[in-house]
Amino acid sequence: MARRRIAYAALLGLAVLFQIFFRFYLSTFTLALVVLLPVLAAALSLPAALGCTLTLSPAAPTVIRGGEASFRLTLECRTPFPLPRVKVRLRWENRLTGEGDALSWAPAPGETAGELTVPAAHCGCLACRAEGAWTCDLLGLFPIPLRKPAPAEVLSLPRPVELEVPPGLLSGRSEGAALRPRPGGGPGEDYDLRNYRPGDPLRSVHWKLSSKRDELVVKETLEPHRAALVLTFDRFGAPEVLDETFARLCALSRWLLERQRPHHIRWAGPGGTGTEGRPVDSEAALLSCLALAFSAPAPEAGASMLDLPLRLPGEGGRVRRIHVTASGLEGGGL
């Protein structure tokens, strides 16, 4: 663009000299044409710039750590006017670790799509956004800003690892088979006796015992209730440590999903005043939970989940905690 401006300045200077030394209508016409030429070029370039759409999208929603994440830029022009060269300046960042770098894309004439790759060195959310997008007038003298595309994200997932699962994780005490009242009642082998409350169905009344006590007694059906299984981890430390922690966390979560065991994943919230996380009952829910964990920078130090009380929103009863670290698993109490 600088060379084009210098060339235009030289052309304008020649037109002025031509007007000074040759005072004829041709010199005046030439000077007016040179002066109005940038205005005409800008006017012809504006429809193409306004009808241009840039789209930024991930080539794949996830990538395994150690590979490369790909982002695709697409240029669509809905007008018949010619579009001069386009330049897009982008920046990618791993929201978990904070690493990132700048990128640029300048398509060749006639090119409408391009692919940019970024390294997925660590686990996290690789976010790519456009810092600016420009085209220029037909003479290449003035930049014309374009609408920036929406950001795009790719999850950098941990590498698969072999995990030694503690024996008896889904049996016995760890499963927490406690009895509790069944909502709505119904038939069952296990039940408890209590006094009648308004609204109880008459079929649940224990008539024989009620006649002896001279008051209504009902049978309340009980059903086994498993303890809520919670996987916790410490969301702080060096990126290499977090990589190993997430690898074991995903391995254990997928092991539970293969056995049809829903669970929760929790970690300490900002400032260590509470916990964050989501229930996991499918692979999609696991990816959604990882996206939440990857969405903010991880501090170098913080409060350990083992030092925080574990409360699950909307859950009652017993809770089984399995704490995941970079070196292995630690079982918490009920």
Low-pLDDT windows of residues: 172-177
The mean pLDDT is 82
| Biggest β-sheet description | 6 strands, mixed
Based on CA atoms alone, the radius of gyration comes out at: 34 Å
Name the structural class.
alpha+beta
Q: What general form does the structure show? A: elongated
Keywords:
334 residues; alpha+beta; 6-stranded mixed sheet; 5-stranded mixed sheet; 17 strands; 25% helix
Topology:
Elements: H1 2-21, H2 25-50, E1 52-58, E2 62-64, E3 68-77, E4 87-94, E5 100-105, E6 113-119, E7 124-136, E8 143-145, E9 152-157, E10 178-181, E11 191-195, H3 207-213, E12 217-225, E13 228-233, H4 239-258, E14 263-268, E15 275-280, H5 283-293, E16 319-324, E17 329-331
Parallel strand pairs: 2-9, 13-14, 13-16
Antiparallel strand pairs: 1-3, 3-6, 4-5, 4-7, 7-8, 7-9, 10-12, 11-12, 14-15, 16-17
Give a verbal description of the structure.
This protein has helices at 2-21, 25-50, 207-213, 239-258, 283-293; strands at 52-58, 62-64, 68-77, 87-94, 100-105, 113-119, 124-136, 143-145, 152-157, 178-181, 191-195, 217-225, 228-233, 263-268, 275-280, 319-324, 329-331. With 334 residues, the chain is of the alpha+beta class. The strands form four sheets. Strands 2, 4, 5, 7, 8 and 9 form a six-stranded mixed sheet that branches. Strands 15-14-13-16-17 form a five-stranded mixed sheet, with helices on one face. Helix 1 (2-21) packs antiparallel against helix 2. The longest helix has 26 residues, at 25-50. The model is unreliable at 172-177 (pLDDT under 50).
